[in-house]
Amino acid sequence: MSSATVEAWPEGPVGFVSRVRWGFRAWRRTRPFWGGLLAMIAGLPILYFPYAHLSLGGLTVAMSTTAGAGSLIIGLLMIALGLTAWFQPLVRIFCGVATTILALISIPVSNLGGFGLGLIPGLIAGGLLVSWAPLQAPVAVAEETVAEPAGTFAEQPAAEQPLEYGAAPTQPAEEEQR
Question: Which helix (H) or strand (E) holds 103?
Fold first, then answer.
């Protein structure tokens, strides 16, 4: 079942929880939700590990590096790009490309991209954000669309000879007079 085939609202009376759930579902389907969520999730380990003190048994390991500020910036930017993709879906391609670039930059800057926990979701999120496209609005069937469209292949004249490299196509004499 795809988002294009389900009905928008259920039939009959619904409760508050159902209305909220259906409203969230409608909101989620009009934007790159999963790409934005993964971008925000990818920013968290990149942001966390340079400032964390991990305890392995009785040994405390501090992952603090000189690139802590770079990790802070990369993590916060990835979270901001995820939120931007949610609330401004028109800039999804920019957010996807920037998320991918930041995930790749986090390899040398932020402990191998948060030990891969931020790198892998960041790359997937960038791909999801770039590839998402909104559904087209359903077209109302009019009387004109039932008839054969005006620009079909049968009406177009055949090319008399193939175009040479760099040559511009020319209009037939009939179309120049119109």
Answer: helix 92-109
Nearest alpha-carbon partner for 118 in 66, 169, 50, 164: 50
Among candidates 170, 31, 157, which has minimal Cα distance to 88?
31
What would the pLDDT profile of 164-176 be if each residue is shown by its tens digit? 666 566 666 665 5
Q: What CA–CA distances, in Å, run from 51 to 78, 96, 164?
A: 17, 26, 63
Contacts (Cβ under 8 Å, ≥6 apart) of 122: 38, 39, 42, 43, 46, 78, 99, 100, 102, 103, 106, 113
Residue with tokens 């055949």: 158
Q: How far is CA 157 from CA 54, 122, 149, 163, 168, in A?
A: 73, 50, 16, 15, 17
CA proximity to 43, closest of 97, 108, 120 = 120
Token pair listed for 94:
């920019």
pLDDT digits (tens, 9 = 90+) for 98-140: 999 999 999 888 878 888 899 999 999 999 999 998 877 777 6
- Count, residues in the chain: 178
**Residue at token pair 């891969």:** 116
